[in-house]
Amino acid sequence: MNRIRVFTRRQKGYALLLTLLVITLFSILGLMLISVSFNHTKQFTEETYRTQATNAAEMGLKDYNQKIGVLMSGMTQNKPSSFQEFENQLNNTPSLPAVYHEQFPNLQGEPEFDIHVTKTVNPSADRIQWTIRSIGTVQGESRTITQDKTFTFDSRYTGTPEYKGLSLPYMNGSAIVAPGNWNCNDHNNNHVSINGSTDNCIGATEENVDLSGVRSAFQSMSVASSSDDTVPVDSKGNMNADGEVKGNVYVAPGDGTINIPDHLVFDGNVYFGKDVTITGDAVFKGNVSVSGNLVVKGNVRIEGNILIGGNLDFNGGDVYEGYAYIGGDLSRGSDNGPKDSDTVFKRTVYINRNFAVKSNKASIQFEQGIVVQGEASPKTSANGSITIGHQQRGTDDSTLPVTVTTNNTNYQ
Q: What is the sign of the dihedral through the CA atoms of 25, 28, 31 and 37?
């Protein structure tokens, strides 16, 4: 009987111990489950905040890019005329500060973003690079996005179209003259048309003219040098050559006048160190430089650019395909040629002194305008006409001279 009682007590002890062990085990498991659930919830919340922080950073970057787009759209109406002007517009736009902060308390998590912009300017390449850093923050969690923006200014917009190595500063106009120097009177026999206008003599652009930079550009163009061949000249100054002259030709400076009496074709660049008179027909396929005056009594076709230190006097029937700089006067001493002896200047003509061109039989065409530092007094009569077109830019005038490229977008 006593043994049964002892055994029963032992069973009750084991049951209590087992119960305590089970309770302890389930308590530990419960705590573990609670801990796992808490950590999972915490991780989920943190991940949610990180995602929202990324969204906030993207929001900031998108906002800044939209402001850049608005600026570029506005520039189509007010195009910068130079890289410096473009840089000033970019830096002085109030909506594009280098640092700014935005917060949205009404949105879930109260997201916010900070913008920081680092700017690098490379004037020699007409290029500006911005590194935009957008930092999004939600409930202490932050995410950063960086992106590079490159603004490239098309330098061709500030110059005329390049031709045989020469491009000159663009000036907006057709007949560009110094103030008070446009002396073209509208009367019955005057046929001077500017930029397609049917009104005689109307449309000149009067502004200060300084051709020193233009002259320097012409002086830097490719021409013949003293190391090149020369062409024999007789005692009367006539150039003795047969038909075609190969290579560059250099005629050393000196007194007197070079006369080209026959039909000659110059294949290369030509430099004349004295006055030149052309009484025959001449074709110049390269650039031409004349240190003195050039008088054209025959016919000439110049396929390159021409720099004339003195005056240019021509009769008619000539074609100048390149740019022309005339250090003295541009005039027409005689208009005795046939009615179809039109003269065409296909690119801009720069006249350092006076523009005194007249025509009473044929037309004189300045297809890409004239720039005159002295007085301009064109005259026509009878069947003569003078037409002056608009100066051309080196790139399409209707497009924005700035391209914007986006690269290196990195999430951190």
A: negative
